[in-house]
Specification:
The structure holds two protein chains of two kinds. Chain A is 0% helix and 53% strand. By secondary structure, chain A is an all-beta fold. In chain A, strands 2, 4, 5, 9, 10 and 11 form a six-stranded mixed beta sheet that branches. Chain A has a five-stranded antiparallel beta sheet with strand order 1-3-8-7-6, with no helix packed on it. By secondary structure, chain B is mostly beta strands. Helices cover 0% and strands 49% of the residues of chain B. Chain B contains no helices and eleven strands. In chain B, the strands form two sheets. In chain B, strands 2, 4, 5, 6, 9, 10 and 11 form a seven-stranded mixed beta sheet that branches. The chains are: A mainly beta, B mainly beta. Chains A and B meet through strand 4, strand 5, strand 9 and strand 10 of A and strand 5, strand 9 and strand 10 of B.
Chain lengths: 114, 114
């Protein structure tokens, strides 16, 4: 039973255009959402997060949008750069769970074409 | 901030042997997590420590697995009587207390059981 779903295994985008990565969740207890980027042979690197009291959070070229009623979030990267090519993981946690463990999706591989 | 360090980076072992991995977290972080990642999947939670106390274990953590964090600093993950199904990337992460606090991952130990 996957609680965090990333339904697109891969995405290709031209350099300079917008990349939109999507994520859906099923557990209503999740109230923190994070995006991680992973390069081959490296561990995931934290990118940006959002709490459920907000619907948008922005950090430079990265913006995360949260639609609580739809249990959906998305990561926008504008403009996309070749160095953004990586696997992106959506993760969620619940402040009600003492461990604050992250539950991850399966990832979306983003390829930015020069 | 030297980041989360894991050793070894790669381990090849024969089925039935025991293996031990080490993780050195970011020194200011009181929480330490172990995750496992297999091909095409996101990281899956195994266990976590707050300081030296192991507070939660996933059902993925069979009795062949044991984790310790003896002085609340580094941690070890031991797998006894390895099986081919244990082949995976084992990721360690550390973080501060509090919901939504991002986890910082090491580069992982890739285990191959032959």
């Amino acid at each position: 039973d996957q609680q965090v779903k990333q339904n697109s295994p891969s995405l290709s985008v031209q350099e300079g255009r917008i990349s939109i990565l999507n994520c859906d969740y099923t557990n209503s207890m999740f109230d923190y959402f994070l995006w991680y980027k992973k390069y081959p042979a490296e561990g995931p690197t934290f990118l940006i997060s959002i709490s459920s009291i907000k619907d948008k959070n922005e950090d430079g070229r990265f913006t995360v949008f949260l639609n609580k009623s739809a249990k959906h979030l998305s990561l926008h990267i504008v403009p996309s750069q070749p160095g953004d090519s990586a696997v992106y993981f959506c993760a969620a946690s619940s402040s009600g769970a003492g461990s604050y463990q992250l539950t991850f999706g399966k990832g979306t591989k983003l390829s930015v074409i020069p | 901030d030297t980041g989360v360090s894991q050793d070894p980076r790669h381990k090849i072992t024969k089925r039935g042997q025991n293996v031990t991995f080490r993780c050195d977290p970011i020194s200011e972080h009181n929480r330490l997590y172990w995750y496992r990642q297999t091909l095409g999947q996101g990281p899956e939670f195994l266990t976590y420590f707050q300081n030296e106390a192991q507070l939660e274990k996933s059902r993925l953590l069979s009795d062949r697995f044991s984790a310790e964090r003896p002085k609340g600093s580094f941690s070890t993950l031991e797998i006894q009587r390895t099986e081919q199904g244990d082949s995976a990337m084992y990721l360690c992460a550390s973080g501060l207390s509090g919901p939504g606090s991002p986890l910082h991952f090491g580069n992982g130990t890739r285990l191959t059981v032959t």
